[in-house]
Write a structure and sequence with these properties.
By secondary structure, the protein is of the alpha/beta class. Helices cover 36% and strands 22% of the residues. The chain is built from 12 helices and 12 strands. The strands form 2 sheets. Strands 4, 5, 6, 7, 8, 9, 10, 11 and 12 form a 9-stranded mixed beta sheet that branches. A 3-stranded antiparallel beta sheet has the order 1-2-3, with helices on both faces. The mean pLDDT is 94. The structure holds magnesium ion.
């Protein structure tokens, strides 16, 4: 197996409750299979989601070495979920895609007032679902903008809010009261505790999320809190009534988790992890294999990188399977040399 670490500037830094994100870091894999064909994978970790880091992935790849066996690849530990997912794809163990029709995508809006102008442009382009980053500035300022953002929605348009775990209970309650009679499809990750924060705090935040989901009519969605295989399973056991935002890039063994979600009748929003085209192809392939309801994809981002061959399908109101299939992983790999 060969690997290449990448460190790429984002064309537009992303401002979230976790701070400014200016560069994407990860590792590309290339695996020559027994039949001589090459398979590619991308490990694109998001450390504040509790995944492994790019350093961890690089070290694990170095330890695996150039000549790898199936037995070695089978036992990559679960804590390296992004690497395991990349290996699944490099080994050609992705899903079969049966429904190849176009799938609507949500357009990403920046935090704060710039959202208004961006929504106008994206609505003009045909987007109907929008995701607005909140929790990045003072709650009072953002709340004061909510009505303007809602007023900017096109006919039949819906708004998703993503707080990236920034709110405390009181702030979340204020927002959810305001959202109740507005065209808000869901509120994503109102609060969050890193797994490293300890079991007691984790439990407290989980209880808060369950309580908010019960007490307010606007659905809630889990993103950071459903970032790995183990987290998704824990929420399924708790009977999470809301939506799961699934970034297949972070999932370890997507097939097992996705079939557990499908069996539970879960509502799932597939989402980009701001990966390059190798990862985007893999993530969207998992999405297009989903048997459940097709909620708008969280892939209305980008182009993320300057070089065209590094980008997944263009941010457009619909993602077409043809565009996913047309991605050439080898071109991405070669761009990194
Ligand atoms: Mg999110």
């Amino acid at each position: 197996m060969a690997y290449r670490r990448y460190h790429l500037a984002l064309r537009q830094p992303l401002r979230t409750a976790h701070g400014r994100w200016t560069h994407r870091e990860g590792v590309w894999l290339r695996l020559e299979r027994a039949d001589g064909a090459a398979g590619y994978g991308e490990a694109a970790p998001i450390p504040w989601f509790g995944t492994e880091t790019a350093d961890d992935i690089e070290a694990a790849c170095a330890a695996l070495g150039r000549e790898t066996t199936d037995e070695q690849l089978d036992v990559v530990p679960a804590r390296l979920g992004c690497l395991r997912q990349a290996l699944t794809n490099a080994r050609g163990r992705g899903p079969a895609v049966t429904v190849k029709s176009a799938w609507p995508a949500a357009g990403l809006l920046p935090a704060g007032r710039p959202a208004l102008q961006e929504m106008e442009a994206k609505a003009e382009a045909g987007f109907r679902v929008f995701k607005w980053k909140v929790g990045a500035g003072p709650a009072a300022d953002e709340l004061a903008l909510l009505d303007d953002v809602c007023a900017g929605l096109p006919d039949g348009g819906r708004l998703r809010l993503d707080a990236n775990g920034a709110w405390d209970r009181r702030t979340a309650e204020r927002w959810l009261e305001r959202c109740a009679e507005r065209p808000v499809e869901f509120v994503e990750q109102p609060a969050f505790a890193q797994p490293a924060a300890g079991a007691a705090l984790l439990r407290q935040v989980e209880d808060l999320l369950m309580g908010l989901a019960r007490d307010y009519p606007t659905p809630l969605a889990l993103d950071e809190a459903a970032a790995g295989e183990g987290s998704v399973r824990r929420w399924l056991e708790r009977g999470w009534p809301g939506i799961y935002v699934i970034k297949p890039a972070l999932l370890g063994e997507p097939a097992a988790v996705l079939s557990a979600l499908a069996a539970a009748g879960a509502r799932v929003v597939f989402s980009s992890a701001l990966e390059t085209a190798i990862g985007a192809r893999a993530s969207l392939t998992w999405a297009f294999s989903w048997p459940g309801q097709r909620l708008a994809l969280g892939f209305g981002v980008g182009p993320l990188f300057e070089r065209a061959e590094l980008n997944g399908p263009a941010a457009a109101p619909f993602v077409y399977w043809d565009a996913v299939e047309a991605i050439n992983p080898e071109a991405v790999w070669n761009a990194g040399s």
